[in-house]
């Protein structure tokens, strides 16, 4: 039996919400009074965020270990969110890996892992959740992309392709889902310091290189850095 929760609270499902941007979104959205569910493969991170949130019986915080690149896990995870909250108002596709490797020796397995997590993961979660949203004829899907989907930055071979793919996937989803009153958008952030990259940004040398690259990008019109 699905539990019924107050209609004025929005139900958010955030993938990759155990760390970084997803975690910050989960905290913020929960603290604003919404119902929040988080998928991630990082069990420790999931337990940690659950510990830091102040849940109530009316407003539980739902976590589940889900690898977004695995269809079966996505299906089961979404089913559980539906059972817990009865609907999903907003899906934030955010889970990703961000590896750096030069093109010529880019390992095949790393390419597969990046595309499967970053691009296929958004497809699988988007498709599964959209099928639920269609039943109530409303919903919003936000795909977290990156400036790397537009700008060619060395070492970002598979990551940049996954983000370019997400930009196009977002357009297709928006086009095909609009008739069901489902709005699909992408957000493409520039660099944001999170736990994963914090150490790198503490190095003055890296900061200098990073600033130079940012200036180069700003002045070039061909999107190649
Ligand atoms: N931080 C930045 O500078 C930046 C810039 C532009 C775009 N982005 C995008 O923002 C999003 C979040 O990035 P972040 O910097 O917070 O990264 P992060 O590494 O801090 O968080 C990513 C989360 O995704 C989870 N994850 C990885 N693979 C998964 C899988 N197969 N299934 C489920 N969860 C998985 C990780 O465990 C982690 O909790 C990503 O889509 C990233 O591409 C980040």
Please tell me about this protein's structure.
The chain has 225 residues and is of the alpha/beta class. It folds into two domains: 11-192, Rossmann fold (3-Layer(aba) Sandwich), CATH 3.40.50.720; 194-225. It has seven helices and six strands. The mean pLDDT is 94. It binds nicotinamide-adenine-dinucleotide. Residues 15-16, 18-22, 39-42, 45, 66-69, 94-98, 117, 121, 144, 146, 189, 191-192, 194-196 line the site of nicotinamide-adenine-dinucleotide.
Write the layout of secondary structure elements.
Layout: E1 11-15, H1 20-31, E2 35-40, H2 43-52, E3 61-65, H3 71-85, E4 90-93, H4 108-136, E5 139-144, H5 157-177, E6 182-187, H6 195-202, H7 204-219
Parallel strand pairs: 1-2, 1-4, 2-3, 4-5, 5-6
Helix pairs in contact: 3-4, 4-5
This protein binds nicotinamide-adenine-dinucleotide.
Taken together, the total number of domains comes to 2
What value does the Rg take, in angstroms?
18 Å
Q: Can you summarize the main beta sheet?
A: 6 strands, parallel
Task: Note the gap between the termini.
Answer: 54 Å
Oligomer: single chain
Look at the structure and give the CATH class of the largest domain. Answer: Alpha Beta
| Class per helix and strand makeup | alpha/beta
Query: What spatial form do the alpha-carbon principal axes imply?
Result: globular
Low-confidence stretches: none
CATH homologous superfamily label of the largest domain:
NAD(P)-binding Rossmann-like Domain
